[in-house]
Write a sequence for this structure.
């Protein structure tokens, strides 16, 4: 019997041996993977032997609110340099910081905070960005701009916080000019030439190929400060070092003066980024368990504030400024809007002569003689207020103060005779105390930002075309992220905070996976302009191998 089975087995092996593996797969209806032969990687007309990247925080690899080692090693220029090295690219040095905690120190004193990591909301337990200190306890910031600066030259000349004109500014990296006219990140990079500009140090390396992504901060500072005027938009025109157009032209002329080829990227609409889309305009929700106490307060709020304002605004033909709060779902926030007609005097006059308001004032523990004073306070506080709507954008940092008591306001009201309890009640951010300009981007401010970005982007694309440079439409890329999302290598990235995968925990800068996506877009544009074949040769990076959020327990080194 054993002999019979052995014979049968040998016959079967002989038959199948006559068939190729592909025949066996076909006979068993198994799909055949084609062995695709990709072309060898070529550089085309580009010379990558000395690559220098010029820009701001997006070039430096800043992520999660700071610069830290793990993210720097995955900056988009670093990713590009690794691919350039396959076809003649040289060494790529970066001004690496000292640890994975992030932050900066000045002679032992902390001047910039450590990175964000994913923590838990104190009420709901949901994932939320928190500073490392608030998750794991006190951490050491060991990157000190006095004690341990690295030695250049640096191929990565990305300087966080830099605007276009800062690239031309002498002394921008001189510690003697800090903090008024020097950048702490650039101080780390200037070494023995503290007065050299970013552009001078870039050109000193005689680049054969460059990338330039600058201009974001020329509008971003205005946006992240809520358009309050403390960080103005760079003028469109003006001499180099002042106006964006002439400054950008000077930068391009200098970078290409030695015959270098390069690639530039334009400016995304800052209103597409997570920093402005995470905190919603209707953030007051008494049905949310973490805001449950709001439901009990709404009747009193309507009686003592919202109802009063609603009646006055309606009397002056503006009934839509304020509506009563509801206990059934989300409610808008109370904000200042400088574009509105100031009705301070009208509020003061009406309330000064209102018997009902006089009773309200007395219920605060004040004498009837205080009615004119309190009426004046109401007028000053609410003359230019309205509630938010879907056209308003709240900055990400507003989420930490909405619903909290503004101690400065409370103490001022207590100084006028109100009890601490009543003073606190009228000092709650976004509810009884209107949010000031720095927390909100009004539609008018959004229009200013968009107009500036459109003008700057026209300048960038025109300069790229005239100089024969490769061009990346980062504006379109980030708009796609914020609308449909972008799928690459089975991963879909969106602009959502924490879960979207593209934006880091500060809501402004990218994750390492986001920077990998950008690196791929840069390589595609280089292919199109210079005849390289990063994409066709299979040399785009797999974005799925790059992390999105870094653990709070990431080792410091």
């Amino acid at each position: 019997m054993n002999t019979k089975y052995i014979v049968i087995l040998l016959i079967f092996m002989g038959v199948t041996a006559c068939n190729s593996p592909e025949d066996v797969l076909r006979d068993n209806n198994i799909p055949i993977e084609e062995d695709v032969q990709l072309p060898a990687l070529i550089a085309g007309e580009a010379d990558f032997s000395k690559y220098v990247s010029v820009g701001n925080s997006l070039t430096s690899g800043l992520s999660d609110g700071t610069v830290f080692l793990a993210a720097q090693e995955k900056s988009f220029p670093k990713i590009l340099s690794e691919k350039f090295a396959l076809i003649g690219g040289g060494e790529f040095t970066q001004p690496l910081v000292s640890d994975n905690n992030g932050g900066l120190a000045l002679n032992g004193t902390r001047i910039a905070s450590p990175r964000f990591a994913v923590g838990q909301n104190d009420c709901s337990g949901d994932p939320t960005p928190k500073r490392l200190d608030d998750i794991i306890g006190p951490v050491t910031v060991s990157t000190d701009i006095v004690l341990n600066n690295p030695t250049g030259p640096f191929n990565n000349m990305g300087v966080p916080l830099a605007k276009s004109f800062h690239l031309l500014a002498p002394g921008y990296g001189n510690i003697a000019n800090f903090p008024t006219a020097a950048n702490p990140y650039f101080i780390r990079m200037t070494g023995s030439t503290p007065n050299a500009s970013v552009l001078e140090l870039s050109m000193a390396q005689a680049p054969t190929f460059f990338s330039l992504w600058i201009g974001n901060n020329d509008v971003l500072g205005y946006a992240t400060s809520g358009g309050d005027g403390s960080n103005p938009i760079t003028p469109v025109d003006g001499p180099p070092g002042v106006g964006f157009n002439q400054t950008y032209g000077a930068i391009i002329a200098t970078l290409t003066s030695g015959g270098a080829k390069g690639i530039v990227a334009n400016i995304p609409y800052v209103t597409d980024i997570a920093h402005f889309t995470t905190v919603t305009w209707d953030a007051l929700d008494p049905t949310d368990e973490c805001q449950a106490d709001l439901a009990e307060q709404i009747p009193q709020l309507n009686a003592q504030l919202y109802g009063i304002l609603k009646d006055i605004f309606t009397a002056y033909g503006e009934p839509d400024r304020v509506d009563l709060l509801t206990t059934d779902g989300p409610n808008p926030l109370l904000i200042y809007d400088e574009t509105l007609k100031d009705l301070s005097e009208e509020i003061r006059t009406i309330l000064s002569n209102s018997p009902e308001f006089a009773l309200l004032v007395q219920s605060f523990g004040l004498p009837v003689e205080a009615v004119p004073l309190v009426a004046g306070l109401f007028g000053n506080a609410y003359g230019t207020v309205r509630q938010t709507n879907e056209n308003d954008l709240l900055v990400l940092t507003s989420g930490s103060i909405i619903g909290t008591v503004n101690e400065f306001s409370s103490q001022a009201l207590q100084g006028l005779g109100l009890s601490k309890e009543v003073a606190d009640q009228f000092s709650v951010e976004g509810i009884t105390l209107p949010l000031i300009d720095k927390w909100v981007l009004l539609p008018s401010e959004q229009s200013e930002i968009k107009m500036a970005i459109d003008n700057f982007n026209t300048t960038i694309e025109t300069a790229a075309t005239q100089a024969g440079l490769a061009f990346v439409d980062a504006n379109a890329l980030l708009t796609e992220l914020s609308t449909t999302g972008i799928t690459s290598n089975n991963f879909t990235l969106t602009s959502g905070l924490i879960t979207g995968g593209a934006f880091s925990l500060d809501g402004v800068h990218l994750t390492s996976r986001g920077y990998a996506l950008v690196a791929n877009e840069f390589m595609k544009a280089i292919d199109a302009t210079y005849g390289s074949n990063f994409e066709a040769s299979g040399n785009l990076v797999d974005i799925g191998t790059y992390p999105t959020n870094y653990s709070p327990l990431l080792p410091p080194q």
